[in-house]
């Protein structure tokens, strides 16, 4: 992180004061994308599983691929707490995370998760079982699907 600030901000070093405006810009970009894509942000209720929400929406999704929805959840995140020390310190806070759920014709359902605080860590989660199901269907190989797997397959060697 220190290298990013040193190189991107002309040697100014890592400063917490620079992170606030960057975060606002990042959040505006997410909300602009939501408006342009015509999808909604669905807040995840505490205790309600993300998988259940996604399965409900997948059941109503009719396109071969596209954006399913964007979920929002408060989760723990490691940040610099903003103390006035000449160095960065790690701390943990609750911050918003955005889950971009999409359906891809090759990979099936997947999500990209972004933290709303600098450094905006991202994670892509692709389910290998869904990928295998898509490939089998594309090749015309019969199989019996489970929620998160395959029970049987006409050509097991293709798995």
Low-confidence stretches: none
What is the count of distinct domains? 2
Tertiary shape: elongated
Report how far apart the termini are.
Answer: 41 Å
Strand sequence of the main sheet, in spatial order? 1-2-3-4-5
The helix fraction, in percent, is: 25-40%
- Radius of gyration, in Å, reads 20 Å
Q: Which range does the strand content fall in?
A: 25-35%
Q: Say how many strands there are.
A: 7
Can you count the helices?
4
Main sheet: strands, sense, barrel: 5 strands, mixed
- Mean pLDDT over the residues: 84
- Which structural category do the helix and sheet elements fall into? alpha+beta
* SSE string, helices as H and strands as E: HHEHEEEEHEE
Question: If you had to describe this structure to a student in words, what would you say it looks like?
Answer:
The protein has helices at 2-8, 16-37, 50-60, 128-138, and strands at residues 41-43, 66-79, 91-104, 108-115, 122-126, 143-146, 149-153. The strands form two sheets. A five-stranded mixed β-sheet has the order 1-2-3-4-5. Strands 6-7 form a two-stranded antiparallel sheet. It has 159 residues and is of the alpha+beta class. Helices cover 32% and strands 33% of the residues. The protein folds into two domains: 2-126, no CATH class; 128-159, no CATH class. The protein is built from four helices and seven strands; from the N terminus they run ααβαββββαββ.
Could you name the key traits of this structure?
159 residues, alpha+beta, two-stranded antiparallel sheet, 4 helices, elongated
């Amino acid at each position: 992180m220190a290298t990013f600030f040193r190189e991107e901000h002309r040697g100014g070093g890592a400063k917490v004061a620079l992170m606030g405006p960057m975060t606002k810009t990042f959040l505006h970009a997410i909300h602009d994308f939501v408006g342009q894509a015509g999808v909604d942000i669905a807040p995840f209720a505490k205790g309600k599983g993300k998988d259940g929400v996604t399965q409900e929406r997948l059941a109503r999704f009719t396109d071969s691929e596209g954006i399913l929805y964007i979920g929002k959840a408060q989760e723990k995140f490691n940040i610099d707490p903003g103390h006035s020390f000449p160095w960065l310190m790690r701390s943990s806070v609750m911050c918003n995370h955005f889950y971009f759920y999409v359906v891809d014709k090759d990979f099936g359902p997947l999500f990209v998760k972004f933290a709303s605080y600098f450094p905006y860590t991202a994670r892509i989660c692709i389910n290998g079982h869904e990928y295998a199901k898509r490939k089998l269907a594309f090749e015309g190989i019969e199989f019996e699907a489970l929620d998160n797997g395959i029970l049987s397959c006409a050509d097991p060697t293709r798995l």
